Amino acid sequence: MKMIPEYIFFICIIADKNVGKKCLRESSFVNDKYSEDTGSTLGFSLFLKEVEAYGGKIRFHLSMFNPDKHFERLQIIQVKTSDGILLLYDITNRKSLEWLSRWSQIIKTERKDYIPILLVGNKLDLEEKREVSRAQVEKLKDNQNITLSMEISVKTGENVEEMFMHIARIMMKKYLSKSNLQINQD
Predict the structure, then answer these.
(1) DSSP 90
(2) Mean pLDDT (whole number) for 176-186
C-alpha cells in the first residue's frame, strides 16, 4: 500500500467587513455548498478544508477575524504563525482594498521571512459594479511585494478552488525546497 504524503498549512484570511469572509467559509469549495444567508463574522472563525493535490493530501487550517480592534492582536499572532495569507477585498468597494494597505504593512513588519500572500478580489459576479481597477490592485501588489493577485466569486464559485490551489502550490514549493524535494504535478 502506497502512503500518500500529508501536508498541513495554516492560512490567515484578512478582510474588511462585508467582503465575503463568511460566505467563503460557506462556499461550495470549502463546505461543499454555498449559503448567501451567512450574516457577519462574529469575532473569529477557524475552519478546515482537505483536498488531494500535487501527489498528497493537503489540509488547510483557515482562520479569519472580524476587522475589529479587539481581535487585532490575535490576528497579528496568526500572521506570525501562518504559512500563507489571503488578503481579501471586494471589487465593488474601493475602501476594502485601501483597508488592506495597512495590513500589508503590518505583515511586512511582523514577518521578516518570506510568506506567500495572495491579494484576492471577491464578487467577480458583480463586475458591472466594479470600483476597484486592476491597475489599483497591481500597484498595491507591486508596492507591497505581494506574491499573486486574482479575482474570484464566492457566490458562483469562480476561481475559488484555483485560489486555494495557487496558495497550496506556493506553500508546498517553499516547504519542499527546504527539504530539497520537488512538487508532484498530479
Answers:
(1) E
(2) 62
Locate all alpha helices (DSSP H) within 10-49, ordered by sequence.
21-25, 28-31
Residue 15 β-bridge partners? 88
**Entry pTM:** 0.85
* pLDDT tens figures, 79-112: 899 999 999 999 999 999 999 988 888 898 998 8
Sheet of strand 6-15: strand arrangement: 44-53, 56-65, 6-15, 84-90, 117-122, 148-151
Domain boundaries, the chain: 6-178
d(CA 100, CA 6): 32
CATH code of the domain made up of 6-178? 3.40.50.300
CA gap 18, 89 in Å, rounded: 9
Give the C-alpha separation, 77 to 172, whole Å. 22
Long-range contacts of 110-113 (CB under 8 A, 24+ apart): 110/76, 110/79, 110/80, 111/79, 111/80
